[in-house]
């Protein structure tokens, strides 16, 4: 495979942010009029993220719970709109875009469904993400039928083909989700995503709820599907061992910001951001099995009130005054390696 930074971009996020606002209800507004200090709350889930994913690669996205990984994935999938910034996608077989700015809105609307189908998401809990009232044949076959990918008379054969591709027995296509094991349900979710012939799969902790042996089967399935169909993945996970195994590049996220991104081999061999260094130090390996592990000091700050400057500075042992007041930008430190840290800049 070519170096990811020399490949064709499939999706690009430019300064993407997402804020969730809980507005005051009537009683709270009344209390505020009477002098109570009640304010609307804003969760800063994702903060000015730049991320480019190239066609055919696997990007791992890693970070602590609550850092905004899933929100970023949902924005890239088109499920949640960004509060600011832009997301640009390149469709497969779409041909060159016309520079004519007078292109009709009807033509743009015809392109929209393909854009949305081209990116699909696989969720962490397969049982809660599948409709319990529908049989597998309907879960997998409904979307391709509705979008004209397959005709009704060919639907049963199409569902059989998809189930075989993801390692499910087609004889089970009349079963309901609760009649499958966890690994089988996850395969149903993967089959549902593949049924609309996507270019890009976003896997949000898609193996976290499975047994270790089943995790290995699903990981191998992802690799086989990538090789067979030329898929692109964003693989969101807490498991650094899995990310190291499956990813071409890894992005490290902390409190809504990407703090480091690099090719997988480079990042694991030469981590540069203090947060990345601390994360990798917690990975259990045979070489450090006798070592006493220490967690990262302090607690992750609240996204309701993120700290000024570098978000990691309250927990960073090397933080300076500049870290407390000035936001660090992602800067290239090598081929495909970017770090957002003032300390790296002065090395």
Explain this structure:
The chain has about 350 residues and is α/β, with parallel strands linked by helices. Helices cover about 35% and strands about 20% of the residues. The protein is built from 13 helices and 11 strands. An 8-stranded mixed sheet has the order 5-6-7-3-8-9-11-10, with helices on both faces. Strands 2-1-4 form a 3-stranded antiparallel sheet, with helices on one face. Helix 5 (about 135-145) crosses helix 6 (about 155-165). It is globular, with a radius of gyration of 22 Å. The model is unreliable at about 1-5 and about 95-110 (pLDDT under 50).
Short description:
This protein has 347 residues and is of the alpha/beta class. It has helices spanning 26-33, 69-77, 105-118, 126-129, 136-146, 155-165, 182-194, 212-229, 240-246, 264-269, 274-281, 321-325, 342-345; strands at residues 9-22, 41-54, 58-62, 84-89, 119-122, 200-204, 232-236, 249-254, 257-263, 331-334, 337-339. The relative contact order is 0.14.
Give the helix/strand layout:
Layout: E1 9-22, H1 26-33, E2 41-54, E3 58-62, H2 69-77, E4 84-89, H3 105-118, E5 119-122, H4 126-129, H5 136-146, H6 155-165, H7 182-194, E6 200-204, H8 212-229, E7 232-236, H9 240-246, E8 249-254, E9 257-263, H10 264-269, H11 274-281, H12 321-325, E10 331-334, E11 337-339, H13 342-345
Parallel strand pairs: 3-7, 3-8, 5-6, 6-7
Antiparallel strand pairs: 1-2, 1-4, 8-9, 9-11, 10-11
**Rough shape?**
globular
Give the radius of gyration: 22 Å
Task: Report helical residue fraction.
Answer: 25-40%
- Total DSSP E strands: 11
Continuous helix count: 13
Spatial strand order of the main sheet: 5-6-7-3-8-9-11-10
Taken as a percent bin, the fraction of beta residues is: 15-25%
């Amino acid at each position: 495979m070519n170096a990811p930074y020399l490949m064709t971009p499939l999706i690009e996020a430019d300064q993407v942010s997402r804020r969730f606002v809980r507005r005051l209800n009537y009683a709270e507004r009344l209390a505020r009029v009477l002098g109570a200090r009640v304010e609307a709350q804003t969760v800063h889930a994702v903060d000015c993220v730049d991320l480019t994913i190239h066609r055919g690669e696997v990007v791992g996205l890693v970070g602590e719970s609550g850092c905004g990984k899933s929100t970023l994935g949902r924005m890239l999938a088109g499920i949640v709109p960004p509060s600011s910034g832009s997301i640009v996608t390149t469709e497969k077989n779409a041909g060159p875009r016309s520079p004519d700015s007078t292109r009709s809105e009807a033509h743009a609307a015809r392109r929209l469904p393909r854009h949305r189908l081209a990116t699909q998401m696989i969720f962490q809990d397969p049982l809660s993400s599948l409709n319990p009232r529908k049989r597998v044949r309907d879960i997998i076959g409904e979307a391709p039928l509705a979008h004209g990918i397959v005709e009704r008379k060919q639907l049963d054969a199409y569902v059989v083909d998809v189930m075989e591709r993801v390692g499910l027995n087609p004889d089970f296509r009349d079963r309901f989700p609760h009649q499958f094991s966890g690994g089988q349900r996850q395969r149903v979710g993967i089959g549902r995503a593949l049924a609309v012939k996507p270019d890009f799969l976003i896997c949000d902790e898609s193996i976290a709820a499975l047994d270790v042996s089943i995790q290995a089967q699903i990981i191998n399935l992802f690799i086989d599907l990538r090789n067979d169909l030329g898929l692109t993945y964003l693989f969101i996970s807490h498991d650094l061992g899995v990310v190291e195994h499956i990813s071409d590049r890894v992005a490290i996220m902390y409190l809504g910001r990407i703090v480091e991104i690099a090719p997988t081999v480079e990042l694991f061999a030469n981590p540069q951001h203090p947060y990345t260094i601390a994360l990798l130090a917690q990975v259990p390996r045979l070489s450090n099995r006798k070592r006493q592990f220490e967690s990262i000091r302090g607690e992750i700050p609240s996204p309701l009130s993120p700290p000024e400057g570098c978000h990691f500075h309250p927990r960073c042992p090397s933080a300076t005054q500049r870290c407390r007041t000035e936001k660090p930008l992602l800067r290239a430190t090598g081929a495909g390696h970017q770090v957002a840290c003032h300390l790296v800049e002065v090395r």
